[in-house]
Each structure stands twice: as structure tokens, then as C-alpha cells.
Specification:
alpha+beta; 332 residues; 5-stranded antiparallel beta sheet; binds uridine-diphosphate-2(N-acetylglucosaminyl) butyric acid; 4-stranded antiparallel beta sheet
């Protein structure tokens, strides 16, 4: 139940496919604590046996509501929702196609790719409050969304369990093509004329093929996607990274201005330039095609292998570029 394929156990597992079953579980004092909800287990590193109860949600259902709103069960596989939207001709999540995991976790992590963040599509998040087992609906504006972040990861972590997400989608085309090579890839696939007649399915197909070419298939090779977040550095810090790149002949430094005087420098570039591609620790390794991803290369890597490799990467990036890489993957 975790895409990193760590061989660890939990004391107790509860699977539920209805909100009321979850409400019962959170009110049941006989279940060992803590209670920890997981979705697809695609952004976690399970570091050791878990002493409490894992709550595994399987609430399904995609229901169209009024004014472009869609209610989606937290246990719906994220990419199945993307596929459903494309087949209905609805715009919104197409750039987020083929991201592993489930809908509930997408709203916790604020998944993002190819110029789209899921928070831009969320109207509200439906949760069970573990304090009193009551269902609450929290508007997106109150969720504290930021790059790969939300209040669900911090002060609400042990409080709310997501049971459904209400998305806003659009029948009017809103293609996002300006991130990386998305536009070129669409033209290459469908021809220049297609740019004026795009469907969400065409973008979905393009993004899926880009992801397949760069990222490991979690069914074949254990991983949890990007292991680190892309760091934001000050303009002065960015200038010093450029100096280092010039000194060491590393070529131009890819970067994106993100406002407030900050610059995003891809962690993948730094990890690559520190020579990590393909290197490993025990059974864990840095993925050759995308060094932001750590893989369970041997299939039986221990959590300690992954943690040791991650720490070695962090200290080498700190030493060379003075950057503190933050983990994107959560240690449990
Ligand atoms: N790069 C290298 N060497 C490499 C690979 C990449 O130098 O071997 C450099 C290139 O300059 C490239 C840059 O890194 O332009 C950035 O790479 P890319 O745009 O492919 O993606 P990313 O920044 O590494 C982020 C997300 C991904 C998401 C892509 C596309 C984070 C932590 N990761 O990765 O999300 O799919 O952008 O939008 O923000 C995930 O979270 O699991 C994930 C895959």
C-alpha cells in the first residue's frame, strides 16, 4: 500500500468506503492510536513499523453538480478523475494527468505539474473532523495553499481526514501550454493547426507521454515521485549559484522568477550537477532519467537506505550550492 514498496507493517488497518464508516472508526477508542490516513501511499516513506491505525479510504464516486462543480470521492484514483474530465470535454486537471495517488491526497499536497496546481481547481474540501467525527466542508481559500503545501500538512495534520473534494472545471477551453516544452510536444504530436482546436484529451495525452518518458512507473520501480521540493532562493543566492556554475563549467543555470525577489532553481539540476544520477545507497538509487526521484532500485531497499541516500544528497547540495533541499516526501 505504498508506492516506495517499503516492507513495513502497521499495528492495525481500517479500510472504509463510506464517510460513516470513517466517522465510526475515529470515534472507536479501541483502535490503537495514532490514526493515520493514507491514500495511494505515493508520497510517503514508511520508515518503520507503525504502532497505530492506518485508515485507508476507498470512498469513490464522481458526481457532476451545478455551475461547473464536480464532487469527487477522496478514494478516486487521481488519474481516473483526469481521464473522466477529458472524456467529458471538461478543462482543468489535464496538465496534472498521470500523477500517481488519489484525489484526497491531491488536496492535501496541492499536487502540481506543467504550470497547473490543483488548488486552482479546488472549490472546497470535505473532511471528517477527528475531534468530534463531524463532516465539515472547508473552502479552498481557508486551506492555506502554497507550492506543494497546505494546512492539512501542518496544523490540521492530525485533525481532518479528507473524504471528498469539490472541484471547479470548465467547458470553455483553458489550455496551459507555456510550461517547459508542453507547447512543442503538443505541436509535435498533433500538428501546428491543432493549437487552435485543442481538447483537454489532447493535452492529457501529451502530458502523460512526457511523464512516462521521464518518471518511473511506480508499478515497476518503487518510488514516491519527486523526493525534494524545488528550492526558492534569493536573487543574491541565485547569483552565487551562477558564479559556482561558471567556475565549474556547469553551463547555464535553469531558473524561474517566482516573485517577491525569489528564484526557483530546479533541484534536479543541482542533484545532476553534483553527479548523483544513477548513484545509490544500499538498495536505493537516484533515478537516471530524473534525478529528483529516488527509487527502490533493488526492489528490497530498506527505509534506512532511502533516508541515508536522501541525507547524503542534501549535504552535497548544501556544500556545493549552499542550498537546503527540503523533502517533498513525508517520513512516517
Ligand atoms: N534537469 C537537469 N537534469 C536532469 C533532469 C532535469 O538538469 O536530469 C533540470 C532541467 O533544467 C529541467 C529542470 O531540471 O528543466 C526541471 O525539470 P522538470 O521541469 O522536468 O521537473 P522538476 O522541476 O524536476 C517539477 C515537479 C514534478 C512535475 C514537474 C513538471 C516538484 C518537486 N516536482 O519537477 O512533480 O511533474 O515539475 O511540472 O515540484 C512529483 O512531485 O512527484 C513530480 C514529478
Amino acid at each position: 500500500m505504498n508506492t516506495f514498496k517499503m516492507n513495513v507493517k502497521c499495528r492495525c488497518l481500517v479500510e472504509y468506503d463510506h464517510v460513516d464508516e470513517l466517522r465510526e472508526a475515529v470515534s472507536d477508542p479501541s483502535l490503537p492510536r495514532p490514526l493515520f490516513p493514507i491514500g495511494g501511499g505515493s508520497n510517503l516513506l514508511l520508515t518503520k513499523d507503525f504502532p497505530g491505525t492506518i485508515l485507508h479510504g476507498a470512498i469513490k464516486g464522481i458526481v457532476r453538480q451545478d455551475s461547473g462543480r464536480v464532487h469527487v470521492g477522496a478514494g478516486v484514483v487521481w488519474d481516473e478523475f483526469c481521464e473522466w474530465c477529458a472524456s467529458e470535454g471538461l478543462w482543468g486537471p489535464e496538465n496534472l494527468s498521470y500523477i500517481p495517488g488519489e484525489v484526497g491526497a491531491s488536496a492535501v499536497q496541492n499536487i502540481g505539474a506543467y504550470g497547473r496546481e490543483v488548488c486552482e481547481l479546488i472549490s472546497s474540501v470535505e473532511c471528517v473532523d477527528t475531534h468530534d467525527a463531524v463532516v465539515v466542508r472547508i473552502p479552498a481559500e481557508e486551506c492555506g495553499y502554497a507550492y506543494r503545501d497546505s494546512r492539512f500538512k501542518h496544523e490540521w495534520k492530525w485533525r481532518y481526514i479528507v473524504t471528498g473534494v469539490i472541484f471547479k472545471v470548465s467547458e470553455t477551453p483553458v489550455p496551459i501550454l507555456d510550461y517547459g516544452h508542453v507547447r512543442e510536444a503538443v505541436i509535435e504530436r498533433f500538428g501546428q493547426d491543432a493549437i487552435d482546436h485543442l481538447s483537454p484529451g489532447m493535452i492529457r495525452e501529451t502530458v502523460t507521454s512526457i511523464r512516462k518518458s521521464k518518471l518511473p512507473e511506480v508499478s515497476e520501480l518503487g518510488s514516491a515521485g519527486s523526493f525534494f521540493r524545488n528550492p526558492y532562493v534569493t536573487a543574491e543566492h541565485y547569483a552565487s549559484i551562477q558564479q559556482i556554475a561558471l567556475r565549474d563549467g556547469l553551463g547555464p543555470v535553469p531558473h524561474f522568477e517566482v516573485g517577491e525577489g525569489l528564484v526557483k532553481v530546479p533541484a534536479a539540476w543541482m542533484i545532476d550537477k553534483c553527479g548523483w544520477k544513477g548513484r545509490g545507497h544500499g538498495g536505493a538509487a537516484v533515478y537516471e532519467k530524473q534525478p529528483l526521484v529516488i527509487v527502490n532500485g533493488s526492489g528490497n531497499a530498506a527505509p534506512e537506505d532511502v533516508m541515508a541516500l536522501a541525507a547524503e544528497i542534501q549535504s552535497s547540495i548544501k556544500e556545493k550550492f549552499g542550498v537546503d533541499l527540503e523533502r517533498e516526501v513525508e517520513y512516517v
